[in-house]
Amino acid sequence: MSQPEPNNPKSPYFDLAKKYNLKVDFKPFSEIEGISAKDFRHQKINILDFTAVIFTSKTGIDHFFRICSELRICVPDTMKYFCITENVAFYLQKYIVYRKRKIFHGKTKFQDLIDVIIKHKEDNYFVPLSEPHNTEIPVLLDKNNIKYTIGILYKTISSHFTNLKDFDYDILVFYSPSGIKSLKENFPEFIQGDIKIAAFGPTTVSAVQQEGLRVDIDAPNVKAPSMTMALDNYLKEHNRNQK
């Protein structure tokens, strides 16, 4: 799994491992590095110029409020928050009194959130993102004539693996294009062969294919809205074929 190990002992990943007697290693393929307040100032963005913020991840929320704190910016109560999913929206409770703010969310994809944003075209949106980020976001905002500014608040950098001998797995699970980039940087001679690759989200699927690799498991889809469900379905079918 190319992400940190879940803190919650009831995580569905642990249930999956127990159900199929799997050995699961959590190895983040990328790391988040926050942009300093000094570097953010160079972007010449005044957060108080905006009436709404678009969050595509919990990481974006963390770094938005970090920058606001470091620059001593008091975010007004009138600020609107548009989050890609309900789960991301609930994460705002870490920083604000949730019930007293104007908070909106989509379902699973950015397109879902765009449908909500269109109903608030009068707002001026600030979009905190990483470098690199999903190019679909500005494309959809431009297409729908939304007034917005992207601010880079953090960077996604590749992790480094020193022990290549331990990299021997049946399934590799990726959640972002940066994970694929890290795979190629750490293992330039990587040959997929019988190794199955699971990819979450269309941009991750595209990144796998662009590297000439094969996507064996993808999510979300009609039958599996989450990666754990997609893996469960695959393993169930795999075990059935083995009998």
What is the terminal separation in angstroms? 27 Å
Low-confidence stretches: none
What name does the CATH topology of the largest domain carry?
A: Rossmann fold
Overall form:
globular
Multimeric state: single chain
Provide structural commentary.
The chain is α/β, with parallel strands linked by helices and 243 residues long. The protein has 2 domains: 12-29 and 162-242, 3-Layer(aba) Sandwich (Rossmann fold); 33-157, Rossmann fold (3-Layer(aba) Sandwich), CATH 3.40.50. It is built from 9 helices and 9 strands. A 6-stranded mixed sheet has the order 1-6-5-2-3-4, sandwiched between helices. The protein has a 3-stranded parallel sheet with strand order 7-8-9, with helices on both faces. The mean pLDDT is 91.
Explain the layout of strands and helices:
Layout: H1 12-20, E1 30-34, H2 37-41, E2 52-55, H3 58-70, E3 80-83, H4 86-91, E4 102-105, H5 110-117, E5 125-131, H6 136-143, E6 148-158, E7 171-174, H7 177-186, E8 196-200, H8 202-210, E9 217-219, H9 227-242
Parallel strand pairs: 2-3, 2-5, 3-4, 5-6, 7-8, 8-9
Antiparallel strand pairs: 1-6
Helix pairs in contact: 1-9, 7-8
Brief summary of the model shown:
35% of the residues lie in helices and 19% in strands. The protein has helices spanning 12-20, 37-41, 58-70, 86-91, 110-117, 136-143, 177-186, 202-210, 227-242; strands spanning 30-34, 52-55, 80-83, 102-105, 125-131, 148-158, 171-174, 196-200, 217-219.
